[in-house]
Amino acid sequence: MASHRRPKQPSRTRVTVLTTAAAAAVALSSQAANAAPSEKPSKDEVKAKVDKLYTEAEQATEKYNGAKEKQEKLQKEISTIQDNVARGQEELNELRDGLGSMASAQYRSGGIDPSLQLFLSADPDDYLDKASALDQLSGQQVEALKKIQDKQRDLAQQRSEATEKLKDLASTRTELGKKKKEVQGKLSSAQKLLNTLTATEKAALAAEEQRATRSSEREVLTGGSGKPASGRAAAAFAAAQSKIGTPYVYGATGPSSFDCSGLTSWAYAQAGVGIPRTSEAQTGAGTRISSMSDLQVGDLVFFFNDLHHVGLYAGNGQVLHAPRTGTVVRYESMNTIGGPFMFGVRV
């Protein structure tokens, strides 16, 4: 016999849930249809963001350079201390051997108490006090003991100093790694932004930079050499000029690539003058020049409030420098660096 049961009706709760979900789906579809499409940033907006990232990358680069310089200095200091400790230990062994021979000879002749052998152990200080009090040692022996004591103290101090420097070196290496990662992160972000530009937009930006560089070159050539530079500054400036067109690479000091302070330190080294590695440290390399009108060709010129960028004054308001990643050593107007001119330094 056929069944005539009524089909089971959905529960009121299930109907409500389905109705709510359907309404939400309709609402989302409507919002998606009415939402304005996201606008691609313009070429100039991308350039502004990229320039900001490059500035931040250069700030991190100078800190990276400082950490790297500190690491190299610590490594040299540690190596020197370790060499001194090794030599000192040899001298200490010789002093001990000499005193041992002296004691043996005197013992054979019956001239000294065999307890002197106690001194040849690790800690002579306590024995010296006791032996001196007992008047068991000759003047020559006392002098030998004192030399050994002094040498032991000196070695202990040097070993302690080396231990502290090794801790500092480990901390510096950690900082170096962090700064390197920070620089690479900024540069990667900048490259991703540049990759959003079309080939035409990239070409337009490159053309703008080329026009600016040619304009700066004309200013340098037509404006003369500016005020005469000193012999050393002139030689440094000529060395930097020989590197025009060389690519910027963060952390590089030449001769095939440079960052900003890498170029200035390399250029002055070619003139026989050693200046510090980082831009901030280079501010103390000579006499400070506050006014742009008093600058001479070859003077160091510093930009941005934190002094993270440096170049060489080229005359007529222009600077010869290594600007940033993606560029080469070139002339540029001091008004277009991206940060204010702070002061110059005459090395």
Oligomerization: single chain
Question: How can the largest sheet be summarized?
Answer: 6 strands, antiparallel
What's the overall geometry?
A: elongated
User: Helix/strand/pairing class, anyone?
Assistant: alpha+beta
* Residue-averaged pLDDT: 83
Question: Order of helices and strands, N to C?
Answer: HHHHHHHHEEEEEE
- How much is the radius of gyration in Å? 37 Å
Number of strands: 6
How are the strands ordered across the major sheet?
Answer: 1-6-2-3-4-5
- Poorly predicted regions are 1-5, 11-37
Question: Termini, distance in Å?
Answer: 113 Å
Helix content: 55-70%
Beta content: 5-15%
Number of helical elements: 8
Describe this structure in words.
This protein is of the alpha+beta class and 347 residues long. The protein contains eight helices and six strands, in the order ααααααααββββββ. The protein has a six-stranded antiparallel β-sheet with strand order 1-6-2-3-4-5. Strand 3 and strand 4 form a beta hairpin. Helix 3 packs antiparallel against helix 4 and helix 6 crosses helix 7. It is elongated, with a radius of gyration of 37 Å. The termini are far apart. The relative contact order is 0.11.
